[in-house]
Amino acid sequence: xxxxxxxxxxxxxxxxxxxxxxxxxxxxxxxxxxxxxxxxxxxxxxxxxxxxxxxxxxxxxxxxxxxxxxxxxxxxxxxxxxxxxxxxxxxxxxxxxxxxxxxxxxxxxxxxxxxxxxxxxxxxxxxxxxxxxxxxxxxxxxxxxxxxxxxxxxxxxxxxxxxxxxxxxxxxxxxxxxxxxxxxxxxxxxxxxxxxxxxxxxxxxxxxxxxxxxxxxxxxxxxxxxxxxxxxxxxxxxxxxxxxxxxxxxxxxxxxxxxxxxxxxxxxxxxxxxxxxxxxxxxxxxxxxxxxxxxxxxxxxxxxxxxxxxxxxxxxxxxxxxxxxxxxxxxxxxxxxxxxxxxxxxxxxxxxxxxxxxxxxxxxxxxxxxxxxxxxxxxxxxxxxxxxxxxxxxxxxxxxxxxxxxxxxxxxxxxxxxxxxxxxxxxxxxxxxxxxxxxx
Length: 440
Description:
Layout: E1 13-14, E2 22-25, H1 32-43, E3 49-52, H2 58-70, E4 73-77, E5 84-88, E6 96-99, H3 104-114, E7 118-124, H4 135-143, E8 147-149, E9 158-163, E10 169-173, H5 180-189, E11 196-200, H6 208-220, E12 225-229, E13 232-235, E14 244-246, H7 255-264, E15 266-270, H8 284-290, E16 294-298, E17 301-305, E18 320-322, H9 330-337, E19 344-347, H10 359-369, E20 373-377, E21 380-384, E22 391-393, H11 399-411, E23 415-417, H12 430-437
Parallel strand pairs: 2-15, 3-14, 6-7, 10-11, 18-19, 22-23
Antiparallel strand pairs: 1-23, 3-5, 4-5, 7-9, 8-9, 11-13, 12-13, 15-17, 16-17, 19-21, 20-21
């Protein structure tokens, strides 16, 4: 297996402005959240798995490379109309350093797997990754009897000293900063000798749909998972089945494209929108209706009709949204709200301060840099109506910050997004897809 590298020019990208109503159909590649969960489970399975239409991005590349270093074989097929991965589990071994990049799924899902390997595995990543909270993963492994050396930092880099097995059992953690702390342990729990009983002790648990996604993926592979009470999960020990699985499109990555319909006017359709899904992006339809769009689900997929759009003289009104279950949607929705004619408030997203960057501070800073009136709240952002102007929009090496700048640039001349290539984290073709949507 070889590492796939996606790159884009790092200089400022002048976000194209919409000049006419849209009539766009935008296919979205596979879900990052599902792809990386299925890669982890395939690596721990009792036989090979086939993943159809996986996401190919920096995050999924980093996950495949990490699993490959542990000994897992990933074979790709791109020819003949096929886009599949054959993942063959093998005996896990250590003795290397894993590059996590900025991928939360790699830094939080792979350490429990490394504990099942024979040998030491060191985890490190981009400079920004060293600021992301990791103490819960480190402490939880220690509670399970795994030796972890982090020099007391609670962040990357750290080293897991695997012995080939983890006893498992009952542990309690505070996963208030990220649901990934729960998912990472649940994904590996069936391979622990005594399984895993995991209790969340914090008052708040963000992004519950992501935990539900993890449980659904486990059950599809024959793993027995129960929730005996709220905030407690039990994973029974036993085999994880190798299966064939089809990836859904990444619904969160659809957010900027659907938002474009309310700005430019006209319609944007995302084909192959699943009828039933655990992805938090499925809530986008309801959120865009709150902004005033007409949303349709039919055999074509999901369509957002923005009417005449902001540029056609049809203003959008502000919203009040609790995004505690879908914080990853916040940057796109907040960018859209910055163009509204009435105030907006977004809450339930304090945990976004620990994502690729402090997204609350970054969004407020960049919106205000363009003349906006945004205020950071203890757990969210408040926006007052303002007339925005062009200028520099910093991405902070955060893919969702970059796409938020593109959204505002649809309505405002001269928005220059730095390092648009950071979108390669989950959507490498974003710049080309964005201009194609606009008919450029």
